[in-house]
Amino acid sequence: MQRNLGGYQEAAAATGTYGIMASDREDFSLSGPLHLAIVDWTNAHHRRSVAASLVQGVYILERDRQLKRQGPQALASPWWEFFHFHLLRHLVDDVDSSIFAAIYEFKPPKSHYHNSVDESPRYVIAFRGTITKPESVSRDLQLDLHILRNGLHETSRFEIAIQAVRNVVATVGESNVWLAGHSLGAAMALLAGKTMAKTGFFLQAFLFNSPFFSAPIERIKDERVKHGLRIANSVITAGLAFATKKSYHNNQSVDPFAALSAWIPFLFVNPGDHLCSEYIGYLEHRKKMDDIGIGAIERLATQNSLGGLLMSAMGRESEPLHLIPSANLIVNLTPCQDFREAHGIHQWWRPDLDIKSKLYNYK
């Protein structure tokens, strides 16, 4: 898809797309994926880059609102217009009036209708993560705490989000809708995807740096120690789940965790980001437990969390949203300078990523 941005490409090349100042990261002409002048929707890198850019568009929509940037001063629109998306509407939090999501409609020129367009979405619902600015940080951190205590499903922001998702799916069908999100926004997209999957609607989802709060076992270098700790954690979790009668399967009911296994979101993780890196061990540990003959323990442990079990024991409803049956795990192995870079959205449209992908399908 061609778009003439004048001297933007030259400016980006001269500045260094990934070495720019943090204050310039909102400007598509300086930090956006300008290398995607033509989008091949059958290409995984292209789909990932566009999805990440649309999420970035939501971040910038909110920053434009906070800084009262309007007209020529607004920076958000190039993040979707470059890829021929139209902003249908944005979603506003009812507590602080911040923009936390956007619904985009794909409207390519007729000249761009070719085979690869068949792989494109018709609509994308994208969710931003936490913005550490006074106008939004209080509400965003409050929602981050809801994730920590497995209560995001109880928030008004999620109610607004899931109603919007249901309305779009009811109008255009599940095959035409993508979900995308980063950090807190990835948790929102994940919960929306799981909620829809429970009712038989399996939406394509792109989850960037989705939080997984647990002991940082993945950061341990000694593989034997790491594996031993994971086995111990699985045995304890499975034991508590069994003791509290949270059995994953019985003859009278369908295993709800297995029922979700047909939904396979794309999960983008950086091992240098301790907020999401536990997904690597969480998914890989299942295979290792099967290999040593105790897969049944892991199948029970993998759908429960210690925190969720304790909350349930206290009579509080808990939805450990980070626990998912299946996923297409994409790990960015490219070295990062610090946590901020490892957690950032910008990494996911870089053309030079060292990526490892693996499909995990719950059985």
Fold and architecture overview:
This protein is α/β, with parallel strands linked by helices and 363 residues long. The chain has 13 helices and eight strands. An eight-stranded mixed β-sheet has the order 1-2-3-4-5-6-7-8, sandwiched between helices. β4, α7 and β5 (204-208) form a beta-alpha-beta unit. It is globular.
Structural class: alpha/beta
Shape: globular
Helical residue percent? 25-40%
Order of helices and strands: HHHHEEEHHEHEHHEHHHEHE
Distance between the termini: 40 Å
Query: How do the strands of the widest beta sheet line up side by side?
Result: 1-2-3-4-5-6-7-8
In round numbers, the mean pLDDT is 82
GO molecular function, one term: hydrolase activity
Domain Fungal lipase-type: 163-202
Organism: Populus tomentosa (Chinese white poplar)
Protein name: Fungal lipase-type domain-containing protein
How would you describe this structure in keywords?
eight-stranded mixed sheet, disordered N terminus, alpha/beta, 363 residues
What would a concise description of this structure say?
By secondary structure, this protein is of the alpha/beta class. The chain is built from 13 helices and eight strands. The chain has an eight-stranded mixed β-sheet with strand order 1-2-3-4-5-6-7-8, with helices on both faces.
Outline the fold blueprint:
Layout: H1 8-15, H2 28-31, H3 44-67, H4 78-81, E1 85-92, E2 99-106, E3 123-127, H5 137-148, H6 156-172, E4 177-182, H7 184-197, E5 204-208, H8 223-243, H9 256-259, E6 266-269, H10 278-291, H11 295-301, H12 306-313, E7 327-332, H13 339-343, E8 355-360
Parallel strand pairs: 3-4, 4-5, 5-6, 6-7
Antiparallel strand pairs: 1-2, 2-3, 7-8
Helix pairs in contact: 6-7, 8-11, 10-11
